[in-house]
Write a structure and sequence with these properties.
By secondary structure, the chain is α/β, with parallel strands linked by helices. The termini are far apart. The N terminus is likely disordered. The protein has a 6-stranded mixed sheet, with helices on both faces. Strands 4-5 form a two-stranded parallel ribbon. The protein has a single domain, classed as Glycerol-3-phosphate (1)-acyltransferase (3-Layer(aba) Sandwich), CATH 3.40.1130. It has 6 helices and 8 strands, in the order αββαββαβαβαββα.
Length: 212
């Protein structure tokens, strides 16, 4: 039977981390501004697509959409006993570098089948200025297979949180904008996936261009 919500232990861990660490940092330290929270469905499967410029992006996105978002994590992290249990409960799923595509899709679909929100960075990696220039079709493929809508999210300013060689986050202002839902592709046809992917990229870049 498919679960209607995330497991209780995952929700408990999510809220504890959110209210004790992420939310205070976002609002007090980074002076975060959040727009479009009303666009987020609070139940059912959801593919959250965003730009990516910082290691801080996953918890920031999860905090702003007001529900846990499962992100992939490097397989090596799951070999550390205490850390493995913590990130697994929080919603991370392992991905091996040599088998990333197949592993990612299988794990993400399992979360979507259990009505989680799954986060996907549309370009697949960090970009220096937060702009999306080469979006990948993975998010659209997930949405098509799970029949889940896509939610575009733009993070502005996160590329400046950590300077090269620094381990201390800078108190830079952040702005997060959440766009309108985009319907899932009706098929896994390459052309349709590409069209939806470009639609997501345009929505995110347009919000990013609004700046602070």
């Amino acid at each position: 039977m498919v679960k209607s919500r995330e497991p209780f232990i995952s929700l408990a861990l999510y809220h504890a981390f959110k209210w004790s660490v992420v939310s205070p940092m976002l609002h007090a330290y980074f002076r975060g501004q959040i727009h479009g929270e009303e666009n987020v469905p609070q139940s059912g499967p959801l593919v959250v697509v965003s730009n990516h410029a910082s290691y801080f992006d996953p918890p920031i996105v999860s905090n702003c959409v007001r529900r846990p978002v499962a992100y992939m994590a490097k397989e090596e992290l799951f070999e550390i006993p205490v850390l493995a249990q913590a990130i697994k409960l929080y919603g991370a799923y392992p991905v091996s570098r040599g088998n990333a595509d197949r592993t990612t899709i299988r794990a993400a679909l399992e979360y979507l089948e259990n009505n989680w929100a799954v986060g996907v960075f549309l370009q697949g990696t960090r970009t220096p200025d937060g702009k999306i220039t080469d979006p990948k079709r993975g998010a659209a493929l997930l949405a098509a297979k799970a029949k889940a809508p896509l939610l575009p999210v733009s993070l502005w300013g996160s590329e400046r949180i950590l300077e090269k060689g620094s381990k201390i986050p800078r108190a830079v202002p952040l702005t997060i904008r959440i766009g309108q839902l985009i319907d899932a592709p009706s098929s896994t046809n390459k052309e349709e996936l590409e069209a939806i992917t470009q639609k997501c990229a345009t929505a995110i870049n347009d919000m990013h261009d609004l700046g602070r």
